Amino acid sequence: MLKALSIRNVVLIDKLDLEFSGGLGVLSGETGAGKSILLDSLGLLLGNRADTGLISQGADKLVVSGVFELKDKENPFFKLCLENELDVEDDIILKRTLDRNGKGKILLNDQPVSLRFLKEIGPYLVEIHGQFDNQGLLNPATHLDVLDSFGGYKAELEQTRETYRAYKEIQKKLEAAQNAYAAAVTEEDNLRHWADELEKAKIRPDEEEELNRRRTEMMHAEKLIENLNLAYSSLQGRDIGALIQKAQAAISRVNALTENRFEDIETALDTALVQLDEAVSRIEQTQAEISLNANEADAVEERLFALKALARKHQTSIAELPTKLVEFRQKLEALDKGGADIADLERASAKAYQAFLAAAKNLSAKRQAAAQTLSESVMRELPPLKMERAVFEATVTPLEETNFSEKGIDRVIFTVSTNPNSPQGPLNKIASGGELARFMLALKVNLAQKSSVETLVFDEVDSGIGGATAQAVGERLSRLSRTVQVLVVTHSPQVASFSQEHFKVTKIQTENQSHTQVSKLTPAQKQEEIARMLSGKDITDEARLAASVLVKGAGKGV
Q1: pLDDT in tens, 27-52
Q2: CA distances in angstroms from 350 to 279, 353, 558, listed in the order given
Q3: Which residues make beta-bridge pairs with 10?
Q4: What is the DSSP string of 341-405?
Q5: What is the DSSP letter of 110?
Q6: pLDDT tens for each residue of 268-307
Q7: Which residues contact 175 (CB under 8 A, 6 or more apart)?
Q8: Residues 105, 99: contact at Cβ < 8 Å?
Q9: pTM of the predicted protein model
């Protein structure tokens, strides 16, 4: 519900702070007093377009804030906040500013949010019904969800949603398999050619690295052999081995005289002798490995060239060519058994589709019953609202198969006719302003207990009616306010008599400008205001007596 509304510098309102207690709240006042400014200000908090023309004359910016409370924690509002990582406590505080340059801020519990997000959450906080309203129930796109909420068949909705998603998941796999199979068939010849080509290439792991090493060696073969020969001759020329052996014998004699005190030196010389032999042997081996054979150098170059050409062809590296071969083999294998996999998926898809259809048809039957109940309930509300010749119908019709969704196989639309000979048509196309508001009221009386919206605003729902019809409107608004908060802008004394809270909007004229003030009335002031609504500017005793009768009659209940 709306708990508080604060307005600064909006058109004729310099400063206004209102608190609401719930139930049925009425706003009354002379035409032009500024009631629409209150609705415009509330609309700013619900995502309506902000115009600098709303800023009061002489002010730099406007500020509107509101405090809301949602008792239903399943309200989609909370899910949207969670998805957008916004912290929301018990009180929901919205604040919106706009300066003369058209720049503004929107805050939700002191956290900045976008206008787009504000438009998303607005419909879950307050629903406004005016004579020219084109949102909410007037939008046929909402009728399916409205009927489902009224019907209360959550299990059937969930079953339909789950079976549809399961069907779409299998369909997704089937389409992927079909696309892959079609692509594989198209390139089958190429795949076989590429696989054969890579298999014949017999590419070894790390072959590129080995070829590059051999290529480098061959490029520098002469210098390599020259230095290897020098190293070999240096080790052989001085008979280093004989010198080490001679030193080793001398140290052995020293150890014999010192009880092996210098055994480590003897060991080190022995190791040096072994390593020297290994070095000489390795040099001899390396000399043999390095070849000056021009044919071998050409073969290495040709192999590298061939591997690089294959890598370019398949847009990869030489090292990844073996992986490409595996990929081609897998595609060919999938091609060989692809038909069988697709057949299995087709059978699974058909089974899943039948499960969805069964669930959707069961849901459709529930909708048909709920539509009948809603139509009859709304029709019962129309005669007291002076619409005894009007017809309301909630119609469930089948969708084209291409439009089936997780919501089922139905289209729902609310249609009306205002005269017996008039054809049924959409609410906003057939009904006039006053009729439209009363249709909305009749609907809301029946939908209120199932709606997620906890605050409803009706702007001049009593337009063009009076007497017993206005009394019936007031009774229904009062009944509706037992379930949700209802705020009504009205000129009807009959409607005003049912209010739990009554606010009077007054325009104050000074020398240079006008100001709008709003005051919350006491019971006595409320009765006086109803008398004014009955008689006009000059309040008569008869009007005061009639107002007293109206208030007492409303207080006895519906």
Answers
A1: 998 877 788 889 889 999 999 988 89
A2: 76, 5, 55
A3: 13, 55
A4: HHHHHHHHHHHHHHHHHHHHHHHHHHHHHHHHHHHHHHHHHTGGGT-TT-EEEEEEEEPPGGG-B
A5: T
A6: 888 888 888 888 888 887 777 665 554 577 788 888 888 8
A7: none
A8: no
A9: 0.62
